[in-house]
Structure formats: structure tokens, C-alpha cells
Amino acid sequence: MKLFTKVSIGLCLYLVSIFYSLAFAQGGIRVTGKVMDEASNEPIIGATITVIGGTLSTSTDNNGAFVLDNVPENSKLRVSYLGYNSQEVIAQPTEMTISLITSTNTLEDVVVIGYGSVKRKDVTTAISSVSLDDINERPIVNANQAIQGKAAGVTVSQPSGAPGGGTSIRIRGTTSFNGSNNPLYVVDGVTVDNINFLSPGDIADMQVLKDASSAAIYGSRAANGVILITTKQGRVGNPKITLNVLATQNRVTNSIEPLNTAQYKELMDEIGSVNLPGNLTDQTNWFDETFATGNTQDYQFSVSDGSERIKYFLSGGYINDKGIIKSTFYKRYNFRGNIENKVRDWLTINANFSYADYNGNGMVEGLGSNRGGVVLSAINTPTYAPIWDPFNPKQYYNNFYGLNINSPLENLATTGNNRNRENRLIGSGSATIHILPELNFKTLFAIDRRNAFSSTFLDPLSTSWGRNQYGEATDNRNMNTVLTFDNVLNYNKSFDKHSFEVMAGSSWLSSNYTNSYIMGSHFRNDLIETLNVANQISWTGTGSAASNWAMMSYFGRLSYNYDGKYLITANLRTDGSSKLHPDHRWSVFPSVSAAWRISSEEFMKDATWINDLKIRGGWGQTGNQDGIGDYAYLQRYNVIRSPWFEEGKEHDFVSISPQNLRTPDLRWEKTTQTGVGLDFTGINNRLTVNLDYYFKKTSDMLMWVDLPGSGNISQIQRNEGEMTNRGFETNINADIFQGEFEWTSGFNISFNRNKLTKLELKPVYYDARTSDFVNDDVVKNEVGRPVGGFYGYVSQGVDPETGNMIYADLNNDGKTSVSDKTYIGDPNPNFTFGFTNNLYYKGFNLNVFIQGTQGNDIYNVSRMEMEGMYDGKNQSTRVLQRWRVPGQVTEVPRAGYDMKNSSYFVEDGSYIRLKNVSLSYNIKAPALSRIGINKLAPFISASNLITLTKYTGMDPEVNQWGNSGRVQGLDWGTYPQTRAFVVGLNMEF
Question: Is 880 left (phi over 0), alpha (psi -120 to 50) or beta?
Fold first, then answer.
């Protein structure tokens, strides 16, 4: 009976709704029209037309036309489209033409913040938005490259130009000594450690949380800043299909010329280290054999659509990057799907998934030619040598008259069969429950699974090392699974002049890692590369490992806005990590920020040229634990296998030895930051200026500290020191011309000063041992100095009488000794900058992007190998200027001089680079519209086209030590960046 009653009531309500709808329809009108761009008078495709106060909605088709039936008379329509000012009009039964004006009021833009969003005009913290306008017209493989030069306070460099080479990002300076300096990435609400999997073309929005008052909501993982990324979503309107294709030709930006055979023999006769016969001639240009014209292919495809209930975005892509050094490459396949379903008015479901598979091989760089370094061996290998041994045609030539060196092609062959492959799946599902108009609850579960496979194979014939090992191969596999479970409750309430936002939530994270590895040798030949044909399996290089860690977090935010004039935001997060000792596992990370909108005050009402003027300030604390392992505070042990194959040891067990000292007081590395800023928008929203000053202090730095004595344990990890960064940032954006000819420009500049302020147990840290011949560290870190300072002798030129390098006698004791060493360079720039100009005229779009640094030094270790003249390696042609006779005045010392780490190798690394210039044309033709093509835009562009620098190396941006915090600005045979020429096509239909 109860069931019958419920069905009856439901049927009655359904019939009533039908009658009501029919009655409503009888009084409605049919509205038709077009939505146009006011400036160009071109149709706007996908604009949304909504009946205000009702549920009727539609969107424009390929011709900008729309139709709405059963619209109540005298209703208001809201017409909107991204990038345009929305407009409200009265519904008319006649054909309507509605023109939209391009939006210039960025103050109303919504900015993504941690676990929420806010209008830009209400931001109280230091947040930079990254422009992605030109991202499809640049040869960008890693999404981080899109940030370079586009955000004040964010320094992006590419330490290696190798295909798929990573980037180094510093947000407001170096924060950690031994720990990670990478920012935290949050992609569609899911925290990840890198964004190598992400196609740049899938990004819709990118925000950089620079100060602690904005990043503290992410607590213990946000000391290096946070980069929030939102990927593209489906939209209401007609289905959209996009295709972006580009092809790139890559060339080396700067070449170095080696000595020919006659010049080389003359040098060897002076040094006396290699006795060469007199009948040698030039046979091989090793630079040309090593470097080639590289190319990149990039294909990206997407489909999106949406209705009032469901929206989706699907994309796929393929990149194939062949490097300028032969045999180096990088490939990536990527797929993405974003789906949003409004199941009920009170329930919205989101599902996002991303899959990427990337593969590359790389090469040996950052080492001398005698250790497999490819770049330097292209200079150091004598030109008289052929590629192959004439007496052993399957072996690389190796008869260098006693010189310990391999040719660059042999060094490439040692890694030519290596493969580094990873596939990564990130999936998340979320449900948002709209409990009340002001109250919603969101729950999210995500999985981030990475499977990595690394293999090597060195054949037993062609290379000298391969012959020595009788062939060698390895297989290394690992899997890492990270689970995330977030729950967030948001409450927003406005009344009179008061607005509140309260957010509270929790986050649980669990990481599980497994690894297995095997090594084999003694291969019969090079026909089969798998380990099943290796006759010897290493008993020390084979095994497996596993580890896990977890973190629990609770967080909240309270924001208050009075009349748009006075704004305050407070965040609080507490994190607990299994990596740290239970007594120090939990820590609290608070922040507070406030802003005063001066332009809203009564006394500013006559300043009509000021659209917005706001002063803001903030303070907060963030943490870092990325520099420590999963069981950092525990006593760990090395496992030592017994050689079971030896007589009498067939039944031995493994033995163990201590690996480290337990650190029961290991705790969070913390960064406290204070900042003030000013935001100005004026001249009808055409000029925006952002100024920021900050001071941040990192305390309890996680560091490896050397222990005195000669025991088995030489280091301990502990909270050891303090570091500060202070700086000033300026960001300016201007719409210089508007209308048929448009010109927008953006400029940013950042100043940062770094200093080590405290070291407890060990007062000095030496790093970065250079050439084997010198065998001395060139980096010294101590209290009172910036990190990474170069330390060595001051060179005072060449003695005209002896040809020796003169080193300054700083202590005036009449001789050169270690006590004469001093700081000879600083790799930290005085400032970095970026300058972007975008010009549009009648479908043509020209984008020019300039980027650079000023005041940073580079220690050119490569010159020690190419100009050192200490053994039988070939040298660059600069040594032709070397001292030879008494009285000769020159900058290059004699052959065989006393080479030391000195200012002779320190160079100015400042540069100004035309990073990218692109020209596109959006073809508009009725014929294209008739066949459904909404956009057809071919383009050409060039990257790294011009570089103005005094640096004599191959590239001023490289760094042998990659993303290290304590060592920067060393160039030692590092893979250089390339000059790229691009042609491409953007299509939308």
C-alpha cells in the first residue's frame, strides 16, 4: 500500500509538471539571432545564451547563430563567452544581433587557489598567473618550459638541452641545501612531484603560489612554492575538435673548433706526453660526426563537448624529439579525459584521468672525455683518428698512442642501447554535494601509479669497455603508487557589506614503492640483448627493494571581505609524516594575509583613471621533507651477501652492517616568509602593475653532515642550518593598442639575494670536484655567503717571461698556497627578467618573447679540458694563442702550465635571449565555415634564435649539477640547448 501511494503521488506530480510546462509553452516566444565580435564583426562560436531566472539555455553554432523556443515574453537573456564581457538583453521575437566586447577587466577573472578559487581583485597574497597564449606555437616538451620568463619571482632554467631534459625551477630563490628545491605541483586538485606526463596543450590555467601566506594551505610540502594547474574541460555548446601539429628543426647554437692534426702534433711536441709519428693527416671531424640537425614532431588532438548536465574533454598526443647529438631521443604518448556530470542539482561528479608513456636514452654528460663524456670528447679526440679500427672493422678506433681517451662515437655507443621508459597513470574521481546554496562538500580520491623500466646493453665487441666486461646488461624496474583521499567543506555567505568564506578539510596520502634489478655479463655477441643469454649474473648487482610512507593532514581557511575594501585571509594546516620521528612527526603551518583596496575609499572616487589600487601583506610558514628517505629517522643497515659459490660458503646467510646513525630528533625543515605587495590596475583596465617585496628564512635545514673520524659511517642526516632569501619583484602588463590593431605587452623582473646564515656542526661544505688533473673542489658553502659560491685562486694573467699563470699571493707570504684561495665567483644572478609582446592585425598574430639573466657567473670546467694543455687530449683552437717565447704578451698560458681552480675559468653567465618569436595567420573564408572548419591557423616560429652573452661556452643556461641547491652554474661538457625552427598548424572544427 505504501508503495502504491508513493507511485500515485509521483505520477500526479509528473502530470502536473507536464500541464504546467504546456501552459508555460503556450505563452512563450521563439527567439533567434546571432552573436558577433564587436571589433571584428565575426561570429562567436559556442557563446552561451541563458534565460535569466529560468532553465532555458543554448549556445551558438558555427555561424554564431542560436535559437531558443518557448521563451517568456519580456524575459532577459544573458549572453556570455570566455574572454568577452557578458551582456544582458530583452528577448525579442524578431531576429536579434548581439555584439560582445572583448573583456579587458582581468580583475573579475577567477584565480585558482589552494582548495578553492577567488576573484583576482580579492587576492590578498602573491600569486602569479602564467600566460599560455602562445603555448601551441612553441616547441615545448615539458610544461615547465611555459613558465620561463613569464612569472616574476620564478626562475626556470634547463640545465641540460638533452631531449626530454628536465627543468630547474626556483620560486623566490634556493630554499634547501640538500633537500629538494622543486615546487609542489597540484594538477586538477591532485598533488604530484613532477609534470613530465602533462602535455602543455592540455593546460587551461596555471597559477604560481609564491609566498607562504598563499602556499601554507599545502603545509609541509610547500616550502618551495606551489604551482596549481587546471587542465581543459568540456564546455556547453557545439562539439569542438582541435588539432595542433608542429615540426621542428633543431641545431646547435654554438660550436667549438678543435686543433687540426698538424696543430695538435705541434702542441704534443711541446707538452711531451704523446710521441706522434710525422705522417698523420686529418681524417675525422669529430664535432660534425657527433652533432647533427635534430628534429621534433609534435601532434596533439582533442575533442570536447558539453550540455547542461554533462561535459567532457578528451585529448591525445605524440612527441618524438631527436636530439642534436646522434642517437639521443625522447618520445612521449599522452592521453587525457576530463568528465563532469551534473547528476542532480545537488550533486556533481567529476572524473579525470591521464596516461603518459615516455621513453628516452640520453647520454653521458657532465664528465670528462676520459670518463665517457660525449661533448668534451668531440673536442678532445685527435682528428687524425678514424672512426673504426682498420684492422678490426667492428671495433671503434682506439690507438691514441698511449692516451686514455675514447672517441665521442664510442662514448655514445656505450649508452646507445640504453632505454629509460616510464608510464604513468593518474586518475581521480570527485563528488561535490551542494548541501545549501552557500555550503558544499567535496570528496576526492586519486591514484598516481608510475611504472618505470630502465635497461642497458653494451655489446662485447665494438667498445673497449664492452670488451673488458665481455658485454654487459642491466634491467631495473620499479613501481610507485600514491593514493590520495581529500575531503573539503566550503561555506560562503554574504550579507550587506560582509562576505565570509570558511573552508575545512583533511587529506590522507600513502606511497608504496617496489624495485627489482638485475645485472649480467659475458655475452657471446651483440645479436641478443636480453639477460637470458648473459652467462654471468651478478650476485651483488641483483636484488629487490621496497619502501612506503604516509602523511595525514588537516587544514582550514577563513576569509573575510568587508565592502570590497578590507580583506583578510587566515590558513592553518597540520601535517604528520611517517618519515619523521613520532615525537616530531606533527607540525603546524599557519599563515595570515590582508589587503586594503584604497581605490574603493571615498577619497579616491575622483581618480577615475584608477580601476584598482590595493596594498597587501602576509606572513606564513611552510615545510619541506623531500630531502629525506622513507625511513629517515630510523637506524638502517647495509645487506652484505656472502659469495655462496666459494668453497665452504654454500650455506652462508647475509650479514649486515650499520648504514647510518639514528636521528631521533629529525624534524621538519621550515620556511617562514613575510611579504608586502601593491597591485595597481588603471587606464580603463589597460595597465596592470604588481610590486612585491619578500623575506623568507629557512630553518632546521635537512642536511647531510660529515662525521669526524674514519669509521664506517661518515655522515649523518640532521637539521643543521639556516638560510635566507630576500627579494623584490615587478610585473607589468599593458594593452598598448586596442581595436583592429592590438598590441599587448608584459614585462617582469625579479631580484633575489640568498645567504647561508647558520651551520651548527660543520662550518664549511666543499663541493664540485673539477678536472681529474686539478682534483680539487671549486664550490665552498659557509655562513655569511650565498650558496654555491666559487672558491679558488685569483689569476692575474700570464707572466710574459715564463708563460706561467700568475696567481695572487693574497696572504703576502711570497708563495702560492691554499691559504691564498678566496671566493672567485657567484652563480646567483642579480636579476632575471622576461619580456613578451603580442601584436594582432587582421588575423595575423606576432608574438615575441625575450628572456634573460644578469650578474651570474659560470665556472667553465669544459675549458679546463679544452685549454688545460696538461696531457695528450686535443684542445680547442684558442690554445693557438698560448705563450711560446719570452716576452710574448697573451692571455693563454704556456703548454703544461700549473693549472688550478681559478678565476681564469670564471665567466660572466649573463645573457639576453630571443627565446621565441612566432607568426601565425588565422585564415577566415566562407568556404572553410561551410565545411565546418572554425579555425585554420598556420604558423612559423623560432626558439633561441639570438643569444647575447659574453659566455664562451656552448650555452649559458646549462648546469652540470642539474637541480642541485648547493652547486649551481658549472658547465662541464653539458648537453647544450638548441636553436629551433618550427612550422605548424592549429585547426579547430
Answer: alpha
Regarding predicted confidence, which is higher, 948 or 159?
A: 948
Lowest mean pLDDT among 102-106, 120-124, 713-717: 102-106
Read off the C-alpha cell for 456. 642497458
- Check residue 23 and give its pLDDT: 39
Nearest to 240 by CA among 95, 365, 61: 61
The widest CA-to-CA distance across the chain, in whole angstroms, is: 118
SS3 532: helix
The b/e string for 170-204 (b: 16+ C-beta within 10 A; e otherwise) is bbbbbbbbbbbbbbbbbbbbbbbbebbbbbbbbbe
3-state secondary structure of 219: helix
Buried b (16+ CB within 10 A) or exposed e, 320-339: ebbbbbbbbbbbbbbbbbbb
More confident residue, 366 or 307: 307
pLDDT at 840 over 60: yes
Exposure string for 913-928, b = 16+ CB within 10 A, e = fewer: bbbbbbbbebeeeeeb
**DSSP string computed for 360-401:** E-----SS-GGGT-HHHHHHHS-TT--SEETTEEEEE----T
Lowest mean pLDDT among 78-82, 150-154, 910-914: 78-82
Output the pTM of the full model: 0.87
Are 271 and 335 in contact by the 8 Å Cβ rule? The answer is no
Residue 962: count of CB within 10 angstroms of its CB? 16
Grid cell 555567505 is found at 493
Number of H helices, E strands in the chain: 9, 52
Return d(Cα 917, Cα 850) in angstroms, integer: 9
Question: If you average pLDDT over residues 395-419, what whole number do you get?
Answer: 91
Give me the residue label for grid cell 594546516.
573
Residues with Cβ within 8 Å of residue 40, at least 6 apart in sequence: 740
Q: What is the pLDDT of residue 105?
A: 58
Rg (CA), the chain: 32
Cα torsion through 807, 813, 819, 820, rounded to 10:
-20
On whether the CB atoms of residues 571 and 590 are closer than 8 A, the answer is yes
Write out pLDDT tens, residues 128-171. 888 787 777 778 888 888 888 888 989 888 888 888 877 888 89
Strand partners, 558: 502, 570
Identify residue 303 by its one-letter amino acid code.
V
Asked whether the beta carbons of 583 and 180 are under 8 A apart, the reply is: no
Q: What percent of the chain has pLDDT over 70?
A: 95
Pinpoint the alpha helices (H) of 421-540.
464-469
Task: Write down the pLDDT at residue 660.
Answer: 83
d(CA 747, CA 782): 35
Which letter, b or e, does each residue of 965-985 get, where b requires 16 or more Cβ atoms within 10 Å of its Cβ?
bbbbbbbbbbbbbbbbbbebe
Strands (E) across 472-604 are located at: 472-495, 498-521, 536-537, 543-562, 566-577, 586-597
Q: How confident is the model at residue 284 (pLDDT cuts 50, 70, 90)?
A: very high
User: How deeply is 532 buried, as exposed, middle or buried, from its count of CB atoms within 10 A (0-12, 13-18, 19+)?
Assistant: exposed
Q: Are 426 and 454 in contact (CB under 8 A)?
A: no
- Short-list 822, 820, 972, 798, CA closest to 887: 798
Following DSSP, what letter does each residue of 638-695 receive, concatenated?
A: EEE---TTSTT-TT---EEEE-S---TT---EEEEEEEEEEEEEETTTTEEEEEEEEE
Could you give the dihedral angle defined by the CA atoms of residues 42, 47, 49 and 55, in that order, rounded to the nearest 10 degrees?
170
What is the separation of C-alpha 739 from the centre of its chain, rounded to a whole number of angstroms?
Answer: 36
